[in-house]
Amino acid sequence: MKIGELSRRTGVSVRSLRYYEQKHMLASERTAGGHREYPEAAVDRVVLIQHLLAAGLCGDKIASLLPCMRDHDGGPAEMATPWLVEQLKAERHRIDCSIQDLYYTREVLDEVIATAAG
Amino acid sequence: MKIGELSRRTGVSVRSLRYYEQKHMLASERTAGGHREYPEAAVDRVVLIQHLLAAGLCGDKIASLLPCMRDHDGGPAEMATPWLVEQLKAERHRIDCSIQDLYYTREVLDEVIATAAG
DNA sequence: GTAGGATCTGACACCGATGTCAGATTCAAC
DNA sequence: GTTGAATCTGACATCGGTGTCAGATCCTAC
């Protein structure tokens, strides 16, 4: 499919899709004229990228992580290097901290909301 | 205390403390010569601000939220306006979504880490 | 009084994801 | 063929929190 359709189907702007490609998170074939052509699987891929970005992973990490994931075909295309595994463990720890922080902040918000209501 | 000590005790840079003040998240008295002077309670306040910032609330929201919180003295200094309550509920929802996203992403990371280890 | 460390203000830079605009080119439908 | 919509590239802007630098001023210990 073309980039416009991918944008429509994922809710991600055309601009962002091009950015993902620039950062090597998303690949595309090219038409004779230079237009991007995506396979069906690109939809899931883009959704996944959005999740990872929302979780605070930067583009570079995502780019190196993606080939190490199991995809629909089964095994991963690449094995994570020890260096990458360390990075991912650090990210995992950061995420744990974020989760704790979010729970705490949600309680703070709840208290203020409750106080205003009561 | 002076800004340097507050920085040391909270681990927040002097630059950031001044920024918090500029955004009305943090108040200070001034010496005759213009130097900032903080009460003891500023330490907790700064820690709280860090939590809220880490949770993705922007400075303006935090500034309007803080006076509506219960402090050590008991009741809040101000009541949250209906508008603010709506904002906070929206933030709460955003936080819920973030938590879900983080759990999902953590699973993804775990899977890659496990695959690399196994 | 004086020296040196701390603080002041104001300005500019940075990051990363995204928006937006301009001008050129391609694609699809008639 | 032609035309209008879609896409291309490249550049610049934005946001918020923070880093950093310069030059001036203050505070404290001697």
General description of the model:
The structure is a homodimer of 118-residue chains. By secondary structure, the first copy, chain A, is mainly alpha-helical. Chain A has two domains: 1-78, Multidrug-efflux Transporter Regulator, Chain: A, Domain 2 (Orthogonal Bundle); 81-118. In chain A, 62% of the residues lie in helices and 8% in strands. Chain A has five helices and four strands. Chain A has helices at residues 3-10, 14-22, 42-54, 59-65, 82-117, and strands at 29-30, 36-37, 70-71, 74-76. In chain A, the strands form two sheets. In chain A, strands 1-2 form a two-stranded antiparallel ribbon. A two-stranded antiparallel ribbon of chain A has the order 3-4. The longest helix of chain A is centred in the C-terminal third of the chain and has 36 residues, at 82-117. At the A-B interface, helix 3 and helix 5 of A face helix 3 and helix 5 of B. The structure holds a DNA duplex (30 and 30 nucleotides).
Supply the number of structural domains of chain A. 2
Radius of gyration of chain A: 19 Å
Number of helical elements of chain A: 5
Q: Mean pLDDT score of chain A, rounded?
A: 94
Please count the beta strands of chain A (DSSP E, at least 2 residues each). 4
Could you say which structural class the secondary elements and strand pairing of chain A correspond to? mainly alpha
In helices, the fraction of residues of chain A equals 55-70%
Shape category of chain A: flat
CATH class of the largest domain in chain A: Mainly Alpha
Keywords (chains A, B): DNA-binding
Protein name (chains A, B): MerR family transcriptional regulator
Organism (chains A, B): Streptomyces natalensis ATCC 27448
InterPro entries (chains A, B): DNA-bd_dom_put_sf, MerR-type_HTH_dom, MerR_fam
